[in-house]
């Protein structure tokens, strides 16, 4: 399956990737059909993506050499299940809403979403032919009224719209997604293919940590370079990236993280346990 990674931090953080190791951590098999990385920068976003494996990517080497810092990061590794292996179908997807860039990435299958939610997107239309991009367009249409005043909506209002959207698409198939609006990282965990071959929760995991050794995730292909002793970081990943006590998402659980801190969570709760217990 595809792999997701999201980061929200109090202070900008330099994040570098070895996407091959990151993909392997998820236990997926087969070729990587593309990769993408979004680094928010104020109202804008640095969005890099290619419809090819990242192993020999000059873009990825360039990103790592630049050492760009961001307080909101989203990455996606694609193993195609819908849509051709083309740039237009490569995630994350980005669109403007309310004078700022919004970014979305999805893991799973939402069969028939274009029919089940026909006529629900007007301003926002897919460029490619994936269920994930259709889902993003629908989400933005529902969020658009909140952003129409030019003032950032409250976290509670945004959370309510995203929660209702997530509940609707879960009926169509596994709906793990990350969404960033320049202020907060919203993460919805559903189901995914587990090591024993079953499709079950958790679909995502999260970890809250203060500034410590950012190299703790290097073996999993992700390296964080701390910038301050007061740094706070919230991390989301498809699978735990190390042996720290990552928290698994309950099926249908939605959380919001801003400035590295949890600022919203749905009623679903998962029991915290060490990642090593499932490795």
Strand content: 25-35%
The CATH architecture term is: 4-Layer Sandwich
Class by helix and strand content? alpha+beta
**Based on DSSP secondary structure assignment, what is the total number of beta strands?**
16
Shape: globular
Query: Number of domains in the coordinates?
Result: 1
Q: Strand count, sense and closure of the main sheet?
A: 8 strands, antiparallel
Show unreliable segments: 269-279
| Amount of helix | 10-25%
* Spatial gap, N to C terminus: 17 Å
Q: CATH superfamily, called what?
A: Aminohydrolase, N-terminal nucleophile (Ntn) domain
Number of helices: 5
In CATH, what is the class? Alpha Beta
Provide the CATH topology. Answer: Glutamine Phosphoribosylpyrophosphate, subunit 1, domain 1
Order of helices and strands: EHEEHEEEHHHEEEEEEEEEE
Mean pLDDT: 84
Question: How many whole angstroms does the radius of gyration measure?
Answer: 17 Å
Task: Give a description of the structure.
It is a single chain. With 279 residues, this protein is of the alpha+beta class. The protein has one domain (3-278): Aminohydrolase, N-terminal nucleophile (Ntn) domain (Glutamine Phosphoribosylpyrophosphate, subunit 1, domain 1), CATH 3.60.20.10. The protein is 19% helix and 34% strand. The protein has five helices and 16 strands. It has helices at residues 19-25, 58-66, 113-116, 131-147, 155-169, and strands at 3-17, 34-41, 44-50, 69-78, 93-97, 100-107, 176-180, 185-189, 192-193, 199-200, 205-210, 222-225, 232-237, 247-248, 253-258, 261-265. The strands form three sheets. Strands 1, 2, 3, 4, 11, 12, 13 and 14 form an eight-stranded antiparallel β-sheet that branches. The protein has a six-stranded antiparallel β-sheet with strand order 5-6-7-8-15-16, covered by helices on one side. A hairpin with a 2-residue loop joins strand 2 (34-41) and strand 3 (44-50). Helix 4 runs antiparallel to helix 5. The chain is globular, with a radius of gyration of 17 Å. 44% of the residues are buried. The model is unreliable at 269-279 (pLDDT under 50).
